[in-house]
Design a protein that fits this description.
The structure is a single chain. The protein is an alpha/beta fold and 361 residues long. It is 38% helix and 14% strand. The chain has helices spanning 6-24, 49-52, 54-60, 64-77, 101-105, 112-131, 144-147, 154-158, 165-176, 183-190, 206-219, 229-232, 243-247, 308-311, 315-321, 338-343, and strands at residues 86-88, 94-96, 135-139, 180-181, 233-239, 257-262, 273-274, 291-294, 301-306, 324-329, 347-351. A seven-stranded mixed sheet has the order 4-3-11-9-10-8-7, with helices on both faces. The protein has a two-stranded antiparallel sheet with strand order 1-2. Strands 5-6 form a two-stranded antiparallel sheet. Helix 6 (112-131) packs parallel to helix 9 and helix 10 crosses helix 11. 33% of the residues are buried.
Length: 361
Amino acid sequence: MPLVMKFRRYWAVFVFLVLLLPTIGFVMPDMPAPLRTVVAPEERWWMRASQRLDPYINNMFGFRGAVLAAHNTYGRWLGGGDNGRVLKGKDGALFIKEDWALEQSVGQLVRPEAVAAIASVAAELDSTMKASGGRMVMIMPPNAHTVHPELLPDYARALQRSPTEYDLLARSLKEKGVNFVDLRPVLEAAKADGPVYRRIDTHWNTRSAALAFNAVMEAAGRPDLGFPVSEIIGAPSPRTDGDLLRLLGETVPDKPDVDYDHKGAMIPKDKLTVLKDLMPPPDPKNPFQVQAFATGHDGPRIMVIGDSFTQGFWPGLLAERSSAYVWTHHRNCRFDRSLIDRFKPDILIYAVTERSLPCKS
């Protein structure tokens, strides 16, 4: 009688392969996963190994991305709350974790294909505007993680790498001759004079929105369309509300936030003429309705293809400086391109927030 029956030999091979899977996972392709909060075992880990080595093992096992993705999917299927959407940083700062924003900002997630896709869209828009005698400018409002790396947890800062997707896009658009404004140095310089991003919200503040508008108009060859920042923002005031705070299920921040009141031209205008032929029927479920207005005074026709970083900040400025303007959401490269042909802008601004960089089919 054989020592191990034939059918048991097959089972032995199967069990051995299953046990080998974690090791194979170290060399096989994996899904994207959150940053590892522990990248090396503690010194003298063999002393109290279960305490000192377990955190390292929990961050380094094979197929980590696939396992964590499956865990999150299972949790959502069970109806459990997703408490992994917000990262707590230093000094009361909160950061969004969705869309791989953290990994993207520190250079741990770099998707050359995604960068190439949106660069191609920008180049097409630039070609369209040049053919009609207009100007196109692209900006990419950075993630808060990109602008405030000093407020990230130490482990995230230690994992910073370059080039990032932002770096690759800036380089690609320069090679294509597309007018791109890198807002990172603009906002970095502005930090010396006051806050530039909300601390408990995903967005930049009113001051940064004003600085970005001025940078865009200068890049479009129309610096006269900008504004002295002191004339369109008020004094800094405390804020205790924010979307990141809500995502955490909390109502009181560890530290009050700061923003600036809208003032002067930053305040939206209420006596504008609706361009009905450009406005689709309103969808009550869509928070990003198309805006299309004639202002009743002279100025260029300006169109913005953007998102929440421009939607609530720029309408007053656009109305003040244009004869007509359109704002529409980029929809991750799926925006209605016929709007450009129908509106015929003199200046087109393509403004896609960093974490929204990937196009969607």
